[in-house]
Structure formats: C-alpha cells, structure tokens
Amino acid sequence: MDRENFTQKIKDGYTFKSDYITIGGAMIDNEPIADLFINIPLKTLNRHGLIAGATGTGKTKTIQVLSEQLSSKGIPVLMMDIKGDFSGIAQQGVKNAFIEERHAKMNLHFEPKAFPVELLTISKQNGVRLRATISEFGPVLLSRILDLNDTQSGVMSLIFKYCDDHQLPLLDLKDLKKVIQFITNEGKEDIEKEYGRVSTASTGAILRKLIELEQQDADLFFGETSFDIKDLMRIDENGKAFVNILRLNDIQDKPKLFSTFMLCLLAEVYNTMPEQGDSGQPELVIFIDEAHLIFKEASKALLDQIETIVKLIRSKGIGLYFITQNPTDVPDGVLAQLGLKIQHALRAFTDKDRKAIKLASENFPTTEFYKTNEIITQLGTGEALVTVLNEKGIPTPLAVCMMQAPMSRMDVLSPTEIDGLIQQSNLKNKYNNVVDRESAYEILNHKLTTEKPTETAIVKESKNSTAPKKKEESYFTKQVIKVLTSATFIRGAFGVLTKIFKK
Ligand SMILES: Nc1ncnc2c1ncn2[C@@H]1O[C@H](COP(=O)(O)OP(=O)(O)O)[C@@H](O)[C@H]1O
Ligand SMILES: [Mg+2]
C-alpha cells in the first residue's frame, strides 16, 4: 500500500481555506498517521449528516466530540438525548493513559474542558420546559401528526378557522378538545349555518386521536409559555456556544410524541430563522440520537413533511445530524440529503446485516485505499469511516478516522450535578412557571354559563373596526392578537411548504 499517496490524498482532501473543526486522525492499516487530521469545514455543516454504527461503537462520543468543537467555535448545539448519556459534557473530563496514548498517536492536543450546558425537557424530566401552542402547530401539521384523512383534515382546518374568526385562542389540548365538543353540541347549529355541515364521525375520530396523543403525555408539551428558538442560540461569557441537551429518556416508548415534537421544532426553527447569507458557518446544529424513533411510526404524509423540512432548513443555516444504528433506519429521501457521513462499525451476523453493510458501502465515495464493506465490520471502538463535504460541496475522500476523545466527562452527571445545573439556568424562570391564561376552553365555558358579552366580544370589535383602535387595549386583547398572528404566520409558511413539496 502506498502510504505516501494516501497521506497526500487525505491531506489535499481535508485541507480547507476557511475555518473548520477537527474530529480525529486518518488511519491506514489499523494505525493513525500522526498529523494527518480529518477536518470538517464550518461552511458545509448545514449540509446535514448521518452518524451510524452498532451499539457501543462510539456514536455518542462522536457527537460529544463534535458538540465540543462546535461550542468552541461559537456554534450552538441542540442534542436530543434519548439515552440520557450526554450530560457529562458540562464537566471536564480526565486524562488517562488510554486517552493520552490515543492522542499521542495522532499528535492531537488533549486538554480536559467543560462546556456551557442547558438542560431542557418536554416530558416529566427535570429541566427547562419546551412548549408550543396548538395555534403554532396549525391545522396542517396537526392533521399530519394525528394521521387524519382528507375529510378529517378539512374539519381540523375548519376548527382553526372558526377559532380565528371567533377569537378563541388555541393554546393547549384542553382548548382544542373543548372547541370540538362545542361545535358538535351547543355550537352545532350556528356553525353549520356559517360553515356548512360538520360530520360528527370526523370530529369523533379527531377527538379519539387527540386522546391517544394525550396518553403519551403530550399535554405537557402543548401550551404556554412557548419556547423562543433564539434561546437555543446563546453564547457564554467565554465565547463558547451553549450545548442544549433535551432530556428525552422517557420518550423511547412514545415515538408519536417524539416525531410530533421533532417536526414542530423543525418547523418553528424554519419559521423563526431568517434566510442565511454567506456567514460561512451554521447558526445551530441539531443532533437527533436514536433517530429511527422519529421514522418508526410516522405515516407517509408525516415522512414527506420531514423530508421537505430537512431539504429547506439548510438555507436557514441549520445542520441536522441523524444518529442511528443502521443507515437503513433513515428513509432514502432523507438519507440522500445528508452530506456528512460518520460510519462506525456494523456487525455482520445475519443476511440482513450483510445487505445493510453492502448498502452502506455503496453510499460512500469509491476508494483505492480500503475495501469498504470489509472495513466497516473491522473498525475499532471510536473509529469510523468518514466522508464530509468540502467547501465546494464535493464529498471528501473516504477515510478511516480515529475519533479524538471528548475533552469533557465521558460519564453522565450525578443527580446532584444535574439539579445544580438546572438551578443555575437563566431560562428556568422564563419557561417553568405554569401559565394557563384565558383561552378557548375558558372562553367557551364562560359563554355556556352566561349570556353577558365577554371580553371576547371586545376583542372582536377592536380588531374588526376600521376606526382608530381603542386607546386601552387590554392585556388579554394583545395576547390574543399575538397568538393569532403568529399562528397565521406559521400556517402560511406551512402552506408554502406543502406547495413546494407537491411540485
Ligand atoms: N472517541 C472516543 N474516544 C475515547 N473513547 C471512546 C471514543 N468513542 C467511544 N469510546 C469508548 O467506547 C464506549 C462506547 O461509546 P459510545 O459513544 O457510548 O457508543 P454508542 O453511542 O455507539 O453506543 C465509550 O464509553 C468509551 O469508553
Ligand atoms: Mg449512544
């Protein structure tokens, strides 16, 4: 084997003009070559990626290394931590003989470091609470998530229209359920006059599916205060970007809630972020561990929506990285859009395994230096086959990479350390107080128990009149308008998405 030729090709392939991060060193014949580093240009980090490999081969540590490097460059990270094994990044690691030897071979500096971490939650875990309102979801997305048929989706759109027309803010699941009950009972006559017949079979089906979602604890997620995506993009006093860890240990058996949440989050990020100019680095990198869970129970429609958003979100400077055991866990339409590939070892026990390995190797650039399909099964822990996109967007030569060791702690934080971290959080007070202000549920209850005009009527008047606005808008009015406009905006954006997708 021509070592010089290999060294030259890797050096040429992984040298970039603009800024980059280093993930490890190139290996040949099972040994790293000193000073031959595998780099990723910051510029193409928004071109998404895949990190795959069997259990225990080093995927999580690879994300830890990537996150550390990104944080150091001031690029914020959001990590979907499903196994709960990522919190150690908040504390510095320890040098040991194994790590020193590893780094000495590559001639890569190792220095224990801690990184700024924010712990977030959407479920029963302790942490800063991420929430979104039903309005923000909009009828299209909600229908996709609930897997509604066309008729039922039509009814969902009607419900949103009715709530818009009648100033009924839809914040949580309670609101939505109340509105559905109302339009099938007390409000039925009025609604049919205004909007035409609403089939009770459809409303019944929607209600059942909402309850199913509720049983996965989705009520913890829907409501206020809805999370401001900008809060994910904070930089600490030392210029390091925050690594936001979303603790999802209890979501493994709730794939529907997880895909709902992921899609909502991506839609929200898409809607919030401006088109990115040529800043040369991503605004945010999102790692999705156990990514097969998002795809597992997703309907065709939901998968299409995910595929579309993956395609579009790039232009907003967001990089998405899917982590899963096998590349075949990711649908082809998504896989085709992933520029970076870090493939840890796969096991070849069954015929199915061998097929997956064959497929994985065929998705890599051809190489004269490795027998790709053989090497995939022979990689050591913390080693991976890597190809990234260079600054021109062309795949770099395939390289076996010895990943550097995380500079932060490889083990998880203790419960006391976790509590300490949450106590320190600057976001905790903003998001963790329960808000349940007057919304559809309360307004309809009020309407049913009294005939007096409610505040709702006032809102309607002030919004519809062409005369100058009343001097004193109540807090309530302002809030309603805020919710309604943001919802309309997001739904508008989704309309665009749907159109783009249909083309
Ligand atoms: N880059 C690395 N540097 C040092 N040790 C590593 C590295 N990657 C993996 N390891 C070792 O392998 C173990 C398993 O890695 P992990 O990332 O948890 O695997 P996976 O997420 O694929 O199940 C780690 O606990 C660590 O001891
Ligand atoms: Mg892991």
TrEMBL record:
Coiled coil: none annotated. It holds the Pfam family HerA_C. Residues 38-464 form the Helicase HerA-like C-terminal domain. SUPFAM superfamilies: P-loop containing nucleoside triphosphate hydrolases. PANTHER family: SLR6007 PROTEIN, UNCHARACTERIZED PROTEIN YJGR-RELATED. This is DUF853 family protein. It comes from Paenimyroides baculatum. The lineage of its organism: Bacteria, Pseudomonadati, Bacteroidota, Flavobacteriia, Flavobacteriales.
